[in-house]
Design brief:
The chain is of the alpha+beta class and 493 residues long. It has a domain at 254-392 and 419-492: Chloramphenicol Acetyltransferase (2-Layer Sandwich). The chain contains 13 helices and 15 strands. A six-stranded mixed sheet has the order 5-6-7-2-13-12. Strands 8-15-14-11-9-10 form a six-stranded mixed sheet, with helices on both faces.
């Protein structure tokens, strides 16, 4: 690799970049909305952010391209990095509400990154009711998955309102890399040749093992080989379209919603059923989607779910805190006519079945192959999904930012082709749920939020926070037809 040419995006990171750049419908942004119980001092906040960029060098890296368009971009430390181009603040108009803050987050998410600079930005938003403020941190999904975003945040926040005198001083900024066009092109060639050699060596090793196995244990060897091929086929299959007869359309915009609930109640239910928190979370989402379809006058037996499965910590995981270590499981999940227990069992079985798929650990090589597939085909596959769910564990204790306590952490993730994305982050005893909905697929986001909230109530048997954390919620019963279908769904359940 040529000196000063940075490192090339590979695997899922590269695939995420390519699809997001190739189709605005697959825009791949993660926005963390952190609600603060006050307004931090700007100078101290800016110092914390500058320190963060020194601890996490990828936040000072920009994408650079060489002569060959088929190669993924490289990330190199920006010699012209300017913190003020990534960090800013503004005040919302008087009497602004939670909806206004979500609208600001939506505008930030839908605005593309400057591809000549580091792929993130942060805004301090003031003027919220109760003298509160919020921080909006936007990241490109190619440089961080949900768990990496939490790990990045932990380097930004503090354990108390006062500076920690024992905290290590900020390191020196990473050395800038000029990354000339020639250097990048040479590095691309070098990396591509190296990967080609590695791929050829792996293929030769597979063929050698297959030949040896054929002689020593032909039945076992070919059973395993055919099983792996079948797993790859299931992993890469492209569905004809979404299963929902209601959420069929897609566009390039989406709308955000959010609410929270006591995490202890969700964890208690999961423990009582001997299931994971993610199983309980998916059961609640399934109930919400069932109610939403009933509200629209239809009963849908199954929806196609995307579920990110973290590979962080798995053997062979070479990801750092600031990169992706995830693959996507895609499966059909029943949502109609089930009890809470049956919903949790179904979610558990589907996820565990995917975790056992041999192709799961081949996610990065398969993502590399996606460079041979036209982006419109990848878009069609992405739009065939109905719902994406993601559950990210966060810090269990209160954190502070520049002297002000964080009272909420809401994950707001682009739909990336699906009709709906529901992501949950746990923090300080609460579960914070962020929802994004494609504007054509779900023109009535408020009703969807009501149904999802009711889904969590049904699972936990407890309370769920308001859809608007700064105001009281308003409920709706739905149309007579929707109520009739809802009654039929309840009867079947």
């Amino acid at each position: 690799m040529a000196e000063g040419a940075g490192r090339q995006l590979t695997g899922w990171d590269a695939a995420t970049w390519r699809t997001a750049a190739g189709d605005p419908a697959l825009r791949s942004t993660v926005v963390a909305l952190v609600l603060l119980d006050g307004v931090p001092k700007w100078k101290r906040l800016r110092q914390r952010i500058d320190r963060l960029t020194r601890l996490v060098p990828i936040l000072r890296m920009r994408p650079v391209r060489g002569a060959f368009g088929v190669a993924a971009p490289r990330l190199a430390v920006d010699p012209d990095f300017d913190l003020d181009l990534h960090v800013y603040r503004y005040v919302l108009p008087a009497k602004s509400t939670w909806s206004d803050l979500l609208a600001a987050a939506r505008r930030m998410s839908l605005d593309d990154f400057d591809h000549n600079r580091a792929l993130w930005e942060m805004a301090l938003v003031e003027g919220l009711p109760g003298k509160r403020s919020a921080v909006l941190l936007k990241l490109h999904h190619s440089i961080a998955d949900g768990q990496a975003a939490v790990l990045i945040g932990l380097s930004l926040f503090e354990l108390g309102p006062d500076p920690d005198p024992t905290e290590a001083p900020a390191p020196e900024p990473p050395e800038a890399e000029e990354a000339s066009f020639t250097q990048v092109s040479v590095a691309d060639i070098s990396d591509n040749v190296r990967r080609g050699v590695v791929a050829a060596e792996r293929a030769a090793g597979i063929m050698t093992d297959l030949a040896r196995g054929t002689l020593s244990d032909p039945v076992g060897t070919w059973t395993q080989a055919l099983g792996t091929l079948g797993s790859v086929g299931r992993f890469t299959s492209v569905p004809d379209g979404p299963l929902s007869p209601v959420m069929t359309q897609r566009c390039t915009t989406y709308t955000f919603g959010a609410f929270d609930l006591p995490f202890a109640e969700l964890r208690r239910v999961a423990k009582e059923h001997q299931r994971s928190v993610n199983d309980a979370f998916m059961a609640a989402v399934g109930i919400g989607m069932d109610r939403y379809h009933a509200r629209r006058g239809v009963i849908v037996d199954d929806l196609r779910f995307n579920v990110p499965i973290s590979l962080r910590g798995d053997p062979g995981d070479r990801s750092g805190e600031e990169s992706n270590a995830v693959t996507i499981a895609r499966f059909e999940l029943p949502i109609a006519g089930l009890s809470v227990t049956e919903r949790m069992d179904a979610a558990h079985d589907r996820v565990e079945r995917w975790r056992a798929e041999p192709a799961l650990r081949m996610a990065d090589p398969l993502a590399e192959v996606s460079w041979l597939i036209p982006v419109p085909v990848l878009t069609q596959a992405a739009r065939a999904s109905d719902v994406t769910t993601s559950n990210v564990p966060g810090p269990p204790i209160p954190l502070y930012l520049a002297g002000v306590r964080a009272v909420g952490m809401y994950p707001l993730v682009a739909t990336i082709g699906a009709a709906v994305n529901v992501t949950m982050v746990t923090y300080d005893g609460s579960a914070f749920v962020g929802v994004s909905a494609d504007d054509r697929a779900v023109p009535d986001v408020g009703e969807l939020l009501d149904d999802l909230r009711r889904g969590f109530v049904e699972v936990t048997g407890g309370s769920v926070g308001a859809a608007d954390p700064l105001a009281k919620p308003k409920g709706r019963d739905g149309t007579p037809k929707a109520r009739a279908v809802r009654a039929e769904v309840d009867r079947r359940g």
